[in-house]
Amino acid sequence: ARFTDPAQRECLGYRYLRDWHQRENNRGIETALLRDNLAARGYTPAQIGSALQKLESAADSTGITLYAANLRTYQLLRYGVPVQTAAGQAHETVHLIDWTNPEANDFALAEEVTLKGGYQRRPDIVLYINGLAMAVVELKRSSVE
Q1: pTM for the complete prediction?
Q2: Structural domains of the chain, count
Q3: CA atoms of 100 and 103, how far apart (whole Å)
Q4: What pLDDT digit, counting tens, does each position of 91-125 carry?
Q5: Is-contact 107 15, C-beta < 8 A?
Q6: Which domain holds residue 114?
Q7: Distance between CA atoms of 91 and 51, rounded to whole angstroms?
Q8: pLDDT confidence of 7, banded at 50, 70, 90?
Q9: pLDDT in tens, 54-76
Q10: CA 63/CA 136 separation, integer angstroms
Q11: Beta strands 125-129 and 107-111: pairing type?
């Protein structure tokens, strides 16, 4: 409730995305959510498409270490994605997260997000910023030893 319930005095204002355990194709990069946020912040479809392609490529750890993929992804998250939408045009930067105006970002959470890959896992809560998974929360009962 502290994350999503505006009636709570110290609510963090996250949007509740529901229980996603039966939702297909859950990913660490939820492109529809990211597209919507970038469009709302004024980026063109061409800029968004180019930025998403570069982000997906950076996050892919095929053939490189996980550390290298994480570093590439971090740099895009922190400093933005340089995109060029037409030959001869200057590069522009698409900021996946608006660090200057945090209220322009979409903070959301989903429960029981089933992720499939090499093996299936289901974290209790995933926190998203603009459709990008930023944190995983595993809940445990205090009565369980």
Answers
A1: 0.81
A2: 2
A3: 9
A4: 899 999 999 999 999 999 888 877 666 666 777 78
A5: yes
A6: 1-29+102-138
A7: 11
A8: low
A9: 999 988 878 888 888 889 999 99
A10: 25
A11: antiparallel
Q: Residue 18 — φ and ψ, nearest 5°?
A: 85, -175
> Is 35 a member of any domain?
no
Q: Which tokens hold the place of 133?
A: 């998974």
Does residue 36 belong to any structural domain of this protein?
A: no
The two tokens of residue 99 are: 């660090």
Q: Over 60: is that where the pLDDT of 1 sits? A: no
Note whether residue 106 is domain-resident: yes
Q: Do 89 and 132 sit in the same domain of this protein?
A: no
CA gap 131, 110 in Å, rounded: 11
Domain membership of residue 78 (yes or no) is: yes
Instruction: Return all residues near 30 (Cβ < 8 A) that are at least 6 apart.
Output: 128, 131, 132, 133
pLDDT at 50: 95
DSSP code string of the chain? -TTT-TTSTT---PEEEEE-TT-TT--SB-HHHHHHHHHHTT--HHHHHHHHHHHHHHH--TTS-HHHHHHHHHHHHHH-EEE--STTSPPEEE-SS-SS-GGGS-EEEEES--B-SSS-B--SEEEEETTEEEEEE----TT--
| Widest distance between CA atoms in the chain | 63
Could you tell me which of 81, 75, 85 has the C-alpha nearest to residue 47?
Answer: 85
